[in-house]
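Amino Acid Chain and Its Fold in Token Form
===========================================
What this section holds: a protein sequence and its matching fold, both as plain text.
Structure line: whole-number tokens from a learned vocabulary of local backbone shapes, matched to residues.
Purpose: to set a sequence beside its fold so the mapping can be learned.
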Amino acid sequence: MKADRIQVLVRPAERHDIGAIVALFADDAVGGHGDTTDESARPRYEAAFGRIAASPNDMLYVAEWKGEVVGTFQTTLVTTMSGQGSSSLTVSAVQTRADLRGHGIGEQMMRFAIEEAQAKGARLVQLMSSGRRLDAHRFYERLGFVRSHAGFKMKLP
């Protein structure tokens, strides 16, 4: 049975949204990024929000429904010398409130990001997803994303 679609407002995140955004990440058992709603971590989230807000190439968004933040994602516009100096839009930190998954919120956020990429003249939209998020992989493929590259990371001390 398909869940009813929820219509959300996707808008730039504001400082007062930080708590709700962090709560979305802290509730994610698969992500494993160590996010927490503990108030002692709040200054680090505030500082990150400030850096994102100050960047001309980064945007943090929220999906709002009935006055509540129910999803979030971030975009980064990257211009490289390859591809004849073209730009791509990277989407990251995509999160939907766990109890509202399957209601079309993620699709609305991703369609918003795709429209942003087109408006900025990007040649592609890209994202990475944990290898453990099989449902997310099917979701992205359903939207037209194609698996293309192997990802590598190096954690720094």
In short: DSSP finds five helices and five strands in the chain.
